[in-house]
Every structure is written in structure tokens, then in C-alpha cells.
Write a structure and sequence with these properties.
The complex is a heterodimer. Chain A is mainly α. Chain A has one domain. Helices cover 86% and strands 0% of the residues of chain A. Chain A contains 3 helices and no strands. The longest helix of chain A is centred in the middle third of the chain and has 37 residues. Chain B is mainly α. Chain B has one domain. Chain B has 13 helices and no strands. In chain B, helix 2 packs antiparallel against helix 8. The relative contact order of chain B is 0.21. Classes of the chains: A mainly alpha, B mainly alpha. At the A-B interface, helix 2 and helix 3 of A face helix 6, helix 7 and helix 10 of B.
Chain lengths: 83, 367
């Protein structure tokens, strides 16, 4: 009986894609969401210091980061349902 | 007539397994949200139940793997599937009894492989499928979740390190509503499909479906309903282990472990790898704890969990093989499955009574 090689047993390409997708999504979404929290925290602090311009910029960072997280979730669901 | 009776028993056993899967694996989905206070237990479990139901309809890649890639579908009979399910249910209940978050997925695959080997020998096992689709992803997935959660929490702490703890904690608790939802959806897509795959396998074995057929809609809907009902019932004993006994986690760690877990499960589901959601989320929890401080992880508890993981496939396979041997004593008719079902129900009842006599169950209040 012929023993199959490692490359025949393991779907290397699909396994590698799983690793890359999961790493990018898992780490990326956390980093972006942390930026959103940073933006909100800075917005609160800067508003209390009456630095309106800087506070608005921090709020902008938070808003963009939250939109990016929402987009990542939607893309994730679309990718999952596309097969 | 006899084969139809066996088929009905098999479908009942498969849905019972799906219920225990939801019941057993509720911890994976909700434990971190509950332990950090991101969601009330009743709300977290109800939401997880609904999202598990929805997730079951998203994809059938994993079901196809379970039905066609692990054992030779042509050699499978409904009695083999039945015995495999008994092996999986028994192992799920044993690990629930001891509060260990083991893998329902590997219990199911181990049970079916064990009963198939007992019936026909080792040649019915598709080694490539078992290794490439189950065992190797089983090793890689929790390590990947461990690393992703560990790196994520390191980045998160660097970004939000100097900000007010109150705002940061509230922010990550809101985030956990999202990450917990994604995890529940991912759990439904990956885990409910295993039951769909097994029922499909039984239908093919009975001649009710052609070889290689996809699960019919009623199979998808009933599997979704069973896992959702099991999730709603909640397994508080395992929620306590995952949520508080591995590490004492903060909201950021809860968010990163759920986020990393959801990403790994969704990616694996897309490619049809039937991995263990239990392994993945516990790997994420350990990674989030170890990145903060190695001693933050209670390695003794983690070691017990790892031992349960390693034992799951062979233990479920042995129980599945014994269940097949006992069933076949009564011939090929429906008597064997009926006798084994009655015996299994008796054993389950005895375990519940014994557990109740030895102490109050772990509940939302005590857990």
C-alpha cells in the first residue's frame, strides 16, 4: 500500500490561507478596535481640557476605526458565506 | 421497516448529540463575556442561542467533510452511525461531569471512526481526510488562536495603555458584545454542521440520499434548532472553568480571545475544516493570559484541559466501538439500537442523580 505524502494529506494552500486570514482578522480587528477606544478616551480628556480641535481629531480617529471594524465584520461574514 | 426504525433512532441520537454539543460548548461562546461582566448571563446565553441557530444556515462545507472525507461513506450503515453517536454523547457527558471543556467535534469524529473500525476494520478510515482535515487542523487551530490572542492583547495594551481604565474597560465590554456575537455565529456554522454531516451520512447509508448529497433543508433546520436549544440550556460547570479558572481576565483579554477565536473558526469553516471550537477559544483565553504574564495562566487547569483534548478522539472511538459491539449482539435489526439507547439513558440519569447527590450544580448564581 502506497503511503500518501504530507503534501497530499494536508491541503497546504487552504491551511495556509486559513492561518493568514485568521491572523490578519484576529490581530487587525483588535488593533483597530483598540484605536477606536483610544480615540474615545482621548476625545473625553481633550474635551475636558477644552482643546476642541484635538478632541475632534480624536473623535474622527474613533469613528474611522469603528467603521473599519464594522467593515471587517461584514467582509468576514461575506467571505464565509461565499463558499 | 427495521432500517427505517434504526434511521429514526439515529436521527434522534444525532439531534441529542447536537443538544449536548450546544449545552457543552455554550461555555466557548459566553464564558468570557460573562466573566468580564460584558453581558448578563441570561442575555449572553439567549443571544448565543439565536446566533448559533442563524450560523447553522450559513455554510455546509464542514458537513460535507464529516459526511464524505473521514470514513468511507459506502461502508457506513445507520447502526455504525448510531454507535458513533453513543460514543460522542457518552464522552461529552463524562467531560461535562468533570467540568472539562473538551471537543464535541473530536468526540463525534472519534465515535464514528471507532464504530466503523469495529464493524469493518481499519480500511474504512480515510487516513488522508482524518489527518489532513481533522488532526492537523486540530493541532494548528488552538496554537493559532493562542498566538493571535497573545499578539492582539500585546498590541491592545500598547495602544490603550495610558488611557483611563474606566473608559477602556467599558469600551472593550461593548466590543465583547460584537466579538461574542461573531463567536456564537462561528460556533453555529462549524458545530451544527457536524450533526448535519452525520445525519446526512445516515441518510446516505439508508439509501434515502445519493452518495455525496448535500444535507436537505430539514436536516439543516433541525440541527440548528437542537444546537440552539442546547446552548440556551447552558452548561454552567464548563462556563466556570473557561471563564474564571484558566485566567482571571479583564475585558480587553475577553475581547481579544473571542476575536481571535471567531477569526480562526470562521476561516476554518470557510475551508471545510471541522475543528474544535472548544480548543480554539480555550487556546485564545490561554494566549490572552500568557501574553500579559505567564503565571497569570493556571497551568494546572490548562494541563487538565489538554489531557482531555488528547484523550477525546481515542476515548470516544473506544466507546463507539464498544457501543457497536453491544448493538451487533442483537443482530442487524432495531433491537440493538433500542437496547443501547435505553441503557445509555439509564446511565445518563444515574450520572445526573449522582451529581445532584454530591453537591449543588454549578449555576448562574453559584458559578
Amino acid at each position: 500500500m502506497r503511503m500518501p505524502g504530507f503534501a497530499e494529506i494536508v491541503e497546504t494552500k487552504e491551511l495556509l490561507q486559513t492561518v493568514v486570514f485568521a491572523s490578519v482578522a484576529g490581530i487587525g480587528v483588535t488593533a483597530i478596535f483598540s484605536m477606536a477606544i483610544w480615540g474615545v478616551a482621548r476625545f473625553v480628556d481633550l474635551s475636558q481640557e477644552d482643546r476642541r480641535g484635538a478632541a475632534a481629531a480624536a473623535a474622527g480617529v474613533a469613528a474611522v476605526a469603528l467603521l473599519a471594524v464594522a467593515a471587517a465584520i461584514v467582509i468576514g461574514v461575506i467571505v464565509m458565506t461565499s463558499k | 421497516m427495521s432500517s427505517d426504525v434504526i434511521l429514526v433512532i439515529v436521527i434522534g441520537a444525532a439531534l441529542a448529540f447536537d443538544f449536548t454539543n450546544g449545552f457543552h460548548d455554550t461555555a466557548n461562546v459566553v464564558a468570557t463575556s460573562i466573566s468580564t461582566g460584558a453581558a448578563r448571563p441570561s442575555v449572553a446565553i439567549a443571544a448565543a442561542s439565536l446566533l448559533n441557530f442563524a450560523g447553522a444556515f450559513i455554510s455546509i462545507s464542514v458537513a460535507a467533510t464529516v459526511a464524505n472525507d473521514v470514513v468511507d461513506a459506502a461502508a457506513i450503515t445507520p447502526t455504525i452511525v448510531f454507535a458513533g453517536l453513543i460514543g460522542a454523547i457518552a464522552w461529552n457527558l463524562v467531560t461535562w461531569y468533570f467540568g472539562l471543556p473538551s471537543s464535541s467535534s473530536h468526540a463525534l469524529i472519534g465515535g464514528v471512526v471507532g464504530s466503523a473500525v469495529a464493524a469493518d476494520g481499519f480500511h474504512v478510515v480515510i487516513a488522508e481526510g482524518l489527518l489532513g482535515k481533522v488532526l492537523i487542523p486540530a493541532i494548528i487551530a488552538p496554537l493559532l488562536a493562542f498566538l493571535a490572542a497573545g499578539i492582539s492583547i500585546g498590541i491592545a495594551y500598547r495602544i490603550i495603555g495610558k488611557q483611563r481604565p474606566g473608559i477602556v474597560s467599558r469600551g472593550f465590554k461593548y466590543g465583547q458584545v460584537l466579538s461574542g456575537g461573531m463567536l456564537a455565529l462561528a460556533h453555529g456554522t462549524n458545530d451544527a454542521q457536524k450533526t448535519m454531516g452525520v445525519i446526512t451520512l445516515a441518510l446516505i447509508a439508508n439509501g434515502s440520499l445519493g452518495a455525496g448529497a448535500d444535507p436537505p433543508l430539514w436536516v439543516i433546520a433541525s440541527s440548528a434548532a437542537a444546537i440552539a436549544a442546547g446552548t440556551y440550556s447552558g452548561g454552567w460547570r464548563i462556563i466556570k472553568t473557561t471563564g474564571t479558572r484558566i485566567i482571571k481576565m479583564d475585558a480587553a483579554q475577553g475581547f481579544t480571545s473571542q476575536g481571535a477565536g471567531a477569526a480562526v473558526i470562521l476561516a476554518s469553516t470557510h475551508f471545510g475544516f471541522p475543528l474544535s471550537t472548544t480548543h480554539v477559544i480555550n487556546g485564545g483565553v490561554m494566549g490572552a493570559g500568557a501574553a500579559k504574564r505567564l503565571s497569570a495562566v493556571r497551568w494546572g487547569v490548562a494541563g487538565n484541559i489538554v489531557v482531555a483534548w488528547v484523550l477525546t478522539l481515542p476515548a470516544a472511538a473506544i466507546i463507539g466501538a464498544v457501543a457497536y459491539a453491544v448493538t451487533s449482539i442483537f443482530g442487524n435489526g432495531a433491537v440493538g439500537p433500542v437496547v443501547v439507547t435505553v441503557a445509555a439513558l439509564g446511565a445518563i440519569l444515574a450520572a445526573f442523580v449522582r451529581r445532584a447527590q454530591r453537591g449543588a450544580p454549578v449555576t448562574v448564581q453559584s458559578g
